[in-house]
Amino acid sequence: MGEVFLARKGGETLVIKRILPRLAAQQAFLDRFLHEARVVARLNDPTISRIYELGDVEGQWFIAMEYVEGQSLQALLARGPLSLGAACRVGLEAATALSVAHGARDAAGRLTPVVHRDVSPHNLLVGSSGAVKLIDFGVASLTGQGETGGKLAYSAPEQLLEDVTDARSDQYSLGVVLWECLAHRQAFDADADVEVIRQVTEVGVPALPDSVPAGLREVVTMMTALEPAARFADVATARAALLSAVRALKLDVSPAALIEEGRVFPLPAQRGEGQGEGPIGTRTTPAHVSLDAIEQQALALIRDGMSVEEAEAAIDAAALPGAPFALDLLQALIEKGALRSEDQGGGRRLKR
User: Fold this and answer.
1) Is the pLDDT of residue 326 over 80?
2) Alpha carbon 52 to chain centroid distance?
3) Domain ranges, residue 61
4) Does residue 171 contact residue 158 with C-beta atoms inside 8 Å?
5) Is 60 part of any domain?
6) Are residues 40 and 17 in the same domain?
7) What is the per-residue pLDDT for 154?
């Protein structure tokens, strides 16, 4: 729904997120865009990407946001397994961010919890300094209800069954993310959406492998219980349990735990300053790689019947040289007629 630019104001680097022009005239999209800005503006913590300004220029709405030099957790996981310390650092920092959101208060000091509703590796950024930040509050809720959102494989059972969530739903989603970081694979990986929903709501998150220490397995098992009442009372309590397990194992969960993974690199902030990775989730395109060639490589990764999320994950995992955002590639392929997006089995599916 938006496009993102790297920008400079004085000596400061920041990000400008602008609603796509073709969507700006649609009130539903505009409302969601403004909703995200207003929600995040209420939250102030280093673990949540900050918003500096919300405004419009000649009817074009924009959000000026903090720039995080690094990559998404999804991209990091696609490069290889994390160490126990790095995985636990992600879990601890994300739990801090959620605790801040769940403990939000209005100007009068009244508790007004913000439920994120879309915690996933896509929405956690890992900075080159080892910082972890939660982003994308576009479907966040102050009531536990709202627009259907969240990725199926990370959504809590009650979110899929009733579209009703609370802070324990975010705790569940974070538990699934932590499971993935520790197990080095996705907890739910079925081809069909209906099967993912069945696994999430009826089967539950699989047991972690025995190679994961028992203390960490116990924390994740409780965070991802099928029934909300069986989970920790809140994310802060889950974080305390995770920290206790970390200390018992004497794990390094300092920023160095992520930096020393060797996969978080400083990124060039200007065009033309060399090749390599660009702002979060992007790469500057090498001069010898044409965009058409990148699109054809992306197309070759897509199977008939894939969901958009599955196609994005396949493109990200392939780490195509010079590729822009996976969603941008998919949109370009749809606009050129190389792909179609159709309703199928209760969701949107791609057809070649």
Assistant:
1) no
2) 21
3) 2-66
4) no
5) yes
6) yes
7) 95
